[in-house]
Amino acid sequence: MQETIRFASTPVGEGHPPFIVAEMSGNHNGDLDRALDIVRASAEAGAHALKLQTYTADTITVDVDSPAFRVSSGHELWGGRSLYELYEEAHTPWEWHEPIFGLARELGMVAFSAPFDPTAVAFLEKLEVPAYKVASSEIVDLPLIRAMAETGKPIIISTGMANLSEIDRAVSTARETGNEDIVVLSCTASYPATPEGSNLRAIPQLRALLDTQIGLSDHTLGIGAAVAAVALGATLIEKHVTLDRHDGGVDSEFSLDPGELHLLVRETNTAWRALGTAYVGPTEGEAEGLRFRRSLYVVQDVRAGDVVTPENVRSIRPAGGLEPAMIDVVLGRTFRSDAPKGTPLTWNLV
């Protein structure tokens, strides 16, 4: 496994903060100015990358309106729509890619895309994208995965709907090109996805079985699943973003608005920093607290020869005296010397 993978100049791996990818998808609503506003909002929220999807209705399907080419009528978001109609609305015009990528790079983000056919790979190569994403439905298109991996650039593989055999074939296909810069994304390809269907406990298993970095392509509402994924070892989080869910759009229902994206960046970073190591014991930050642990103290002025009693010796804060567990050992003994109230009880004193 590549411990660190560089997306352009940005390192991604367990030793680095989670890499947050803002997926624009079709949330531009057919308006380039809105698309550029999404780029600006994503950068301001702190996202590390901006991702597009590169296809047209004709490169991803054909214009046929039969049951096989229509989304099931009961689908929560796109029920009854033909694939061609849906992709015609959702696609990002190819002539928009250059200004979108240019603005994202200008604002300090990595900019890349998910190509859906070989012509899209060739197009994105001309734009010198630094990485590629394999969408969940394309995980079975091994020639397409090979074309992406052969560029030698990092490849992100989303695993929605896939079984372990299909995931392994996709990863193996990428590796056969000599490309080891692979991140596999745990994913539930339902829109929106439920937390119960996310199965985040698979993240450590996928990492062990595939020997790759693991991330999360998350379609649940909110940021809770993403934060939990980081705690389980995810190094990359992808979430759909929009300016305002009330504006509509094909993916708006399960997308983050800019404020939520900012929270995602902040809280996944907090989760990553909180992981620390497997060390169990006091930390440097607890040094002051250790001074105020309980210990045995003289709580009344005593004179040499006085008997140690519960009235003149007690377990109190701060530290400095004998451990509280020693109280039964010292009770009934006598003081060797005078001691004022507030003196820590030590073996030299009794």
TrEMBL record:
Residue ranges constituting the AFP-like domain according to the UniProt record: 295-350
Keyword DNA-binding attributed: no
UniProt superkingdom: Bacteria
Record-level Gene Ontology MF annotations: transferase activity
E.C. no: 2.5.1.97
Annotated keywords: Transferase
InterPro entries: AFP_Neu5c_C_sf (IPR036732), Aldolase_TIM (IPR013785), PseI-like (IPR051690), PseI/NeuA/B-like_N (IPR013132), Pseudaminic_synth_PseI (IPR020030), SAF (IPR013974), SAF_AFP_Neu5Ac (IPR006190), SAF_PseI/NeuA/NeuB (IPR057736)
Enzyme class per UniProt: transferase
Name by which UniProt lists this protein: Pseudaminic acid synthase
Organism: Nocardioides jiangsuensis
Gene assigned in the entry: pseI
